[in-house]
Amino acid sequence: MGIVERKSRQKQALRERILDAARRIVMREGFASLSMRKIADAIEYSPATLYLHFASRDEIAQALCAEGYAQLLETFVPLAQIADPAERLRALGRAYVAFGVAHPETYRLIFMEDPSYTGAALGGVAAASRAAVSGAAVMDADADADAGADAGAGAVGEASEITAAKTPAAGPPVSEKASLAPAKPDEDSGEAALHIMLCALEELKAAGRLSASMDVTVWAEAFWATLHGIVALNLTCPVFPSAPLDTVVGVALDAWLGTQNAGQPRGVTSASRARKKKSAETSVEPRVEPGTKPAIGAETNADTKPAAKPKAASA
Amino acid sequence: MGIVERKSRQKQALRERILDAARRIVMREGFASLSMRKIADAIEYSPATLYLHFASRDEIAQALCAEGYAQLLETFVPLAQIADPAERLRALGRAYVAFGVAHPETYRLIFMEDPSYTGAALGGVAAASRAAVSGAAVMDADADADAGADAGAGAVGEASEITAAKTPAAGPPVSEKASLAPAKPDEDSGEAALHIMLCALEELKAAGRLSASMDVTVWAEAFWATLHGIVALNLTCPVFPSAPLDTVVGVALDAWLGTQNAGQPRGVTSASRARKKKSAETSVEPRVEPGTKPAIGAETNADTKPAAKPKAASA
DNA sequence: GTCTATAAAGAGATAGAC
DNA sequence: GTCTATCTCTTTATAGAC
Fold first, then answer.
1. Which of B123, B226, B313 is nearest residue A225 as measured by Cβ atoms?
2. Cα–Cα distance for residue pair A257/A281, rounded to 1 Å
3. What is the pLDDT of residue A167?
4. How many Cβ atoms are within 10 Å of A212's Cβ, its own excluded?
């Protein structure tokens, strides 16, 4: 029986190579210019071979999307343990923007390209959010969010392994993936990511720091829209952030979460912070260069913004 | 000389027909599937003819963008006269979202497609905004604004000229072009539209209703990003507004402009309004069906959301 | 499983006749 | 100015040899 297993492994390996190549092409040239031929060339196989592993270009795109959602979720998980819900939301917001800026083409693919891609991983999120809002008490949800549980450890530092483990398609080694659920790229990581935000919001409301009459889901969607707008404009509008992106994000967070700096991590008064914080601001997500002008943080494994325009198909 | 004029007119007419056809195709099938051949078929000319009027597909796209910006500006102009700056910003925000929802493919083309398209009409906006912030007093520009004159006929009244005036990059005296500025699609309507918002913001600050230390430009950009995010998610994310879009927009406006309903047009208290206003809400822009579930207002000349996915090029 | 070869469709853009 | 005809290039996807 070892033979079939080996073959299965080989097949799986080629599948991964295909996805790897596809991911690289998307990051380099944008999703629009991803083609079966390019993938085939990149992995030095014939185009026909790809169809033995994926039924169509679209299926590859879906797989890439799932990876993207998982990747985003990974940046969220370690932040889920921040105690203060407002501060946690701030961190999540910054991480979200940082993710979009660091992986422009991935973000584009996931959130700005095709409704069917965006919807695929978010299909049940509406239902999920409603469930969270209605029934479950504030904290019960993080039962599945084991990340936050043991995270009782230090600030952000400890949980990093958790996320590291859930890397993409860690497939074989993961054994019981249930415990590491958020890592699986083929799971609905998108919902999980939004769920983290929703939970923080619930706590915020429970703490009385959000109008009791406010519909949490609506608030969350509007908040998300703000973050998405910042990322999207940043990727699409060349003149968008005339000020450093950090500043814009800060203003937005202040608008949504109030100007209070209840949390400890930042030591600037809200008033002075609102205007020009380019210097003192320290972002929460790892590896952010505070002084960077336009980007929030981009060095790690970042998609390079394609020089070639991501148009449909130019001659 | 009448002959050359006639020929010029005919040439111009064909140019318009080309653009008309292109616009229809974009609205029906999305920009990605706009091709020279389709345009040629639509107007019953040969593809080669198109190249006598436009150097490339890209040039046609640029022209469509300019039209789109002008269209957006037109919806802004009548709102520019709303006296209270906060209320004006609310109206502008709602109009912006309504425009995006009513003309999804146009909005996509202008703000979500290619940076070069988005940047073309917004090139100088950063500089312009800075100029507005620094030098000119809040109201000074309305001297030369006759643009709103004919437009102002309708609903909101008299002051529309004010904003219309500041349309172009203010730099060279507006003189003759200013008169018809908002209508001309080939002018930088994009800047003008954003400028209207910027002015309202300046007034808001001048009225002391915005933190004096706040950088207006940053605030404006973040505010814009929120609106853009709402529209963009609405167009791209199938599950986005779980609540009526109106509600989400309302929450966002409350977050940015405070919860006060200083203006008169809406008769709901801010508290009750924030949660479920699907019924009582009356939007400011014309022709808005209050009861509509997902859309803010969509019947007039709306792009139909293409059934075919606006992907790159599917087989 | 993987290949070569190719079908079928579509794109942008141009040459040159009229 | 307009057309026909065509070049060149790209794409997804499949058939059938090996």
1. B226
2. 17
3. 38
4. 9
Q: Is the CB of B34 under 7 A from strand C?
A: yes
The alpha-carbon gap from B17 to the nearest alpha carbon of chain A, in Å, equals 24
Query: What is the domain class of B62-275 according to CATH?
Result: mainly alpha
Query: What Å value separates CA A34 and C1' D2?
Result: 37
Q: Cα separation of B280 and B106, whole Å?
A: 29
Answer for A10: CB within 7 Å of strand C: yes
Q: What share of chain A is helix, strand, coil (3-state, %, to 5)?
A: 60, 0, 40
Q: What CA–CA distance (Å, rounded) separates B28 from B302?
A: 10
CA A56 to chain centre: 25
pLDDT at residue B2, as a whole number: 84
CA distance A284 to B114: 31
Which pLDDT value is given to residue B112?
Answer: 96
Domain A1-54 has CATH 3.30.750.24: no
Distance from first CA to last CA of chain A, Å, rounded?
51
Question: Given an 8 Å threshold on Cβ–Cβ distance, is B225 in contact with A222?
Answer: no
Q: Which residue of A has its CA nearest to B241?
A: A221
- For chain B, give the percent of residues with pLDDT over 90: 51
Residue with tokens 């505010």: B223
Q: Are B91 and B82 in contact (CB under 8 A)?
A: yes
State the nucleotide closest to B58 in CA–C1' terms: C12
Query: Which member of B229, B252, B255 has the closest CB to residue A232?
Result: B229
Collapse the DSSP code of B184 into the 3-class scheme (helix H, G, I; strand E, B; otherwise coil) and give the result: coil
Query: What is d(CA B253, CA A256) in angstroms, rounded to the nearest whole number?
Result: 10
Q: Find, in chain A, the residue whose alpha carbon is nearest to that of B242.
A: A126
Q: Which protein residue's Cα is closest to nucleotide D14 at C1'?
A: A48
**Which stretches of chain B score pLDDT less than 50?**
133-182, 261-295, 297-299, 308, 310-315
| Domain A55-275, CATH homologous superfamily name and number | Tetracycline Repressor, domain 2 (1.10.357.10)
Q: What's the CA–C1' distance between B39 and C14, in Å?
A: 18
Pick the residue with more confidence: A202 or A150? Answer: A202
Distance in Å, alpha carbon of B24 to nearest chain A alpha carbon: 18
Pure H helices in A103-215? 104-107, 115-122, 125-134, 146-150, 160-165, 189-206
Burial of A257-284, coded b for 16+ CB within 10 Å and e otherwise, reads beeebebeebeeeeeebbbbbeeebebb
Amino acid code (one letter) for A50: L
Q: Are B156 and B78 in contact (CB under 8 A)?
A: yes
Residue A309 CA and nucleotide C15 C1' are separated, in Å, by 29
Rounded Cα distance, A136 and A182, in Å: 20
* CA B184/CA A59 separation, integer angstroms: 44
In chain B, which residues have their Cβ closer than 8 Å to the Cβ of A32? 32, 312
pTM of the model: 0.78
Between CA A193 and CA B204 the distance in angstroms is 36
